[in-house]
Structures are given as C-alpha cells and as structure tokens.
Write a structure and sequence with these properties.
Layout lengths: L2 H14 L3 H11 L9 H11 L1 H6 L7 H19 L2 H20 L1 H13 L8 H25 L5 E3 L2 E3 L4 E3 L2 H4 L1 H18 L3 H9 L1 H23 L6 H27 L3
Antiparallel strand pairs: 1-2, 2-3
C-alpha cells in the first residue's frame, strides 16, 4: 500500500475533528454520566492489541465500500455542524474510522478490527434529549419497585412519582439513583468483558443483554436499602458520603453479577 496517501488521510481526519474530539473529552471530564469515556479508547486499543498476531499475517487490500462510509461520515459531519448536533458529529468520527480502515486495509483487516472500532461508540455521550427521555421513566420504575419491596417488608411508605415518603423523611429518586448513569458504564464494561473474555457469540449477546435488568435490579436494591436506613437513622443515611458509597457498592455488585453470569454460561457450552 502507499503510505503517503494514508498519512495525508490521517492528517485530514485529524483536522476535521480537531475541535470535536477535545469537546468530547471535556464532556468526559465534567459530566459524571460520560466519565467512562476516558477508558473506551484504551479498551479499544487493547482489543486491537489482542488481534496483533492475526493482523500481522492478514493480507492488505482495498475496499471501495470504505469510500461510501467516508462519504456518509462527511455528510453526517456537515449535517451535525449545520444543526449544531454534537452526537451526530461525534458518531461520524467512528463511521469515518471504519471507512478509512476498509478503504486502506481491506475487508479482512476490517473484520479483525470491527469490534474495536464499533466499541468506540460507547465513548460518545448520550444526547440530552435521549438521556432525559430514558432517565425519567427509569426513575419512576425504580421508585415504584423499591416502594413495593419496602411495603412488602411491612414499612409505612407511599410514593408520589419519584418521591418516596416515610413518616419521618421524604426521599427523592434522582437521576443518579435511576440506574441510567451506571447502565451506560455497565453496557460499555459488559461489552468489553464479552469481547475480551468470551468467545461464543451467543454468550456475548446474553451477557450484554443482561446488563439492563442487572443494572436496574442493583439500583432498586440501592434505593431500598437507602430507604430502610433513612427510615431508621434519618436523612444522613441518604446524603453525602453514604449516598456516594452506596452508588459505588451498587456498581461493584452489578459487575459481580455479570461475572457470575459468565461463570454460569460457561457451564452451558
């Protein structure tokens, strides 16, 4: 292959996204819901490194399909810029990378790198309109299920939307307790786990699909435990350090549940 055109293509790609990538990194830093984005490129590079021996022996050719993907990414970039829609512009970067690999290295190399390239989608923060549309019904569901469990435990509690009311305290299930923040990070980690440690495509699908009920279940447990402790010990049990600590414990429990599910799946090869 000719390295000069490839180098020029990389320079053009870097110039086109010279403002988009830094803005995305700023979102990772300032937005807790997108902070997992820092790890996504690193995990993607590790997946590429895992394929290094196959890449070294893979034939290199060119696929014109890549040109169509590059053209599509340019259209998305321009459309996103005209509408000032960051998600579209950022997504076009992943499409452009896929197109470049296809055009410069061919289908065989792309098949080896496809999982690493598509995994980069997880680094793109969700649009606010999507986040808000999902977070609110998720908060209501977590609140409803947690209150049902608390009532089944014999506790006096009522719910008004995402507000949980005890005789001595009123709690609000906020976005952090809805499970969406942990859900986005868990989806990324479960996908990485599946790509790195699981070979069966069916088991990969089962593990990633199980992320949703596991994340929701873990956050229901978090809200339920917080409700019990707040009822007995007051507002201090639902605020500050304890609130952050329970969030961390919930996330670790969800990861442990995913690892446990993998061990179960291994028994059904």
């Amino acid at each position: 292959m000719q390295w000069l055109p490839l180098a020029l293509g990389i320079v053009v790609l870097a110039l086109c996204y010279s403002q988009i990538i830094p803005s995305m990194v700023r979102d990772w830093y300032f937005d807790d819901n997108a902070s997992h984005g820092f790890f996504i490129p690193l995990i993607s590079l590790y997946i590429v490194w895992m394929r290094r021996s196959e890449l070294a022996t893979s034939p290199v050719d060119s696929s014109k399909i890549g040109l169509f993907l590059i053209a599509a990414s340019v259209i998305m970039l321009v459309a996103g810029w005209l509408a000032f829609e960051l998600f579209t512009m950022r997504l076009s970067l992943v499409i452009a990378l896929c197109g470049c690999v296809l055009y410069w290295f061919g289908k065989r190399v792309f098949s080896l790198l496809a999982s690493a390239l598509l995994f980069l989608v997880y680094m793109i923060p969700l649009p606010a309109i999507v986040y808000n549309a999902v977070a609110f019904p998720l908060k209501l569901f977590v609140s409803w299920l947690s209150v049902g469990i608390l009532q089944a435990m014999g506790m006096m509690v009522v719910r008004e939307g995402n507000i949980i009311m005890f005789p001595n305290i009123t709690l609000e299930v906020v976005d952090a307790c809805s499970g969406l923040r942990s859900l986005t990070a868990l989806f990324a980690l479960s996908t990485a786990y599946a790509l790195i440690l699981i070979r069966s495509p069916r088991h990969r699908i089962i593990l990633v699909a199980s992320t949703l009920p596991i994340a929701v279940g873990a956050n229901v447990l978090r809200v339920t435990v917080t409700g019990v402790l707040a009822r007995k010990f007051g507002a201090a049990a639902a605020e500050g350090f304890f609130h952050e600590f329970t969030g961390l414990v919930t996330f670790v429990l969800a990861l442990a549940a995913l690892a446990g599910l993998h061990q179960v799946l291994r028994r059904f090869k």
